[in-house]
Design goal:
8 strands; 8-stranded parallel β-sheet; single chain; alpha/beta; about 15% strand
Length: about 280
Amino acid sequence: MQRNTPAPAAHPQSRTGDVQRVDCHAHIMVRDAKLVEGRHSEPKHDITAEDFLALLDKHGISHGVLTQPSFYGTDNSLLLDALQRYPDRLRGTAIVAPEIGDDDLDALYRSGMRGLRLNWLRRDTLPDPAGVEYQRLFARAREHRFHIELYVEGHKMADILPAIRRGGAAVVVDHFGSPEPDTGINGAGFREVLKGVGAGDTWVKLSAPYRLGGRAPQPYAQELLNAGGPEQLLWGSDWPWVSHEDTQRYEQCLEDFELWVPDPKQRAVIWCDTPRRLFGF
């Protein structure tokens, strides 16, 4: 990917010990990069690491986690470039082929990647997470200190999440676990998410309430807190809100979080302690 980026000195690094609040789900992107076929979204604007860090600085957020957008597939070069330039403030989640080699996994970890993302949303057919290829990937993820980040429709979660957990890797589930609007907290997929949270091997991002099919997010947040406490939860803005760019504000993301988790002590754990432990800031 070819890009023009300003010198990193414009945004001074935070020291590792200064973790105060972490935005655990955001994206950077450029429009002139090659996009994968069959994508369900694409970048509308060029969004740089500098843009993200400036946004964090404006709102008192000390660190961030960049998630590889699905429309770039396994080309993580833009994300890797950002992690190389801002190693103290940023971590990342990559998309990889299941047959990725051990040396490549080690290199990704050294670069600041901490998760391997399965964005299986809106797919007519899915890989078999219980098959040999993916079970091997999950086991190797655990060995190389990665978690598996999962984004898939709620009605598919009931089959996929247990298979990943059986593989032995820690799991981070995007966007409240994508519960189905018609079944809400009683959906089979969401109940599997709660099982994983309660078992302590699954974490959930409180993020992107506009992707919940119109249902209020507060009941989901409360069920997740009841299942595992704030130690199993993360907060993310989902910035720059792909496909919802014109309806969201960063300030609103912060205000929403205070509604979902009104206890400031629990918010502090979700903002700081949990991501510091999970992403190694």
